[in-house]
User: Fold this.
Amino acid sequence: MSEHHHDHDHGHDHDGKPIQEDTLPSLEAQILETAVRELLIEKGVVSGDEIRRAIEFMDTRGESLGAKIVVRAWTDPDFKELLLSNSADALREFGIDMKPMELCVVENTDEVHNMVVCTLCSCYPRPILGIPPAWYKRRDYRARAVREPRAVLREFGTELSDAMQVRVHDSNADLRYLVLPQRPEGTEDWTAEQLEALVTRDSMIGVSDVLDPAEARA
Amino acid sequence: MESKYRPGDKVRILQRNQPGHVRTPIYIRGKTGVIERIVGSYPNPERLAYGHSGLPYKMLYRVNFKQSDIWDDYDGPADDTLEIEIYEHWLAPA
Assistant:
């Protein structure tokens, strides 16, 4: 299966909400996927169990690895430089190989806030963050994130001043994106575990910032 | 493989009438931006999607746009930007 097929993991929603169909064409694609999958199983190309095990493996990956990578970049300037210039080598230190895709890490600064979307489908750094949230795959996020990013951010509770630049990354080809949020002030003596607890999945997609240290500590 | 464009080059996204699998979204076609980086060469996804080899490889770039150059009525600061990956055969010098 190509990576592109993995992006269309229909019927696999981990938010616990019922699956919401966007429009009829997507329903047609689901019917097609079911037909192809059943045919592949019937013809013995793959077994139902192999598919189940692949989904189970995808389920085991969550965002904790992404948080570890972010915190390592916060605490190790050499690693951060490697992550930004040669992500493949940096990921190797965590035992990750994303080939044929490549990870592009985009760094939040005082001037720039980064946000990631895949307008065409649902490309996402799955080896690092696991399966994307349902809202990331929906047409309204995918259309509005490029069109009116600040309104979308506001809906996620993220208000940015006009002095900040919002930079949207459309993950439409062979790169996958990870936002490197800024390290909060006042965390200089925190352990790696304490820091990792601040780094949320949504902050690595770019729709919100990391947790407030004052709230997390409490 | 030689890349036709370099970071900093101004480029326009072509308005190709190309049915089937393409990775250039319609909203960015016809727009002008700047090459942010050369990503590298990859098999052509437009052919891979139909079971072909995707050879010869195509050069892929990241292109940076001002949001106000994409959307006539962009509601936000003039500095807001968008970055997207575009294959070389969808680009022309601007």
Summary: Chain B has one domain: 10-93. Chain B has a mean pLDDT of 96. The beta strands of chain B are 10-13, 32-42, 58-66, 81-87, 91-93.
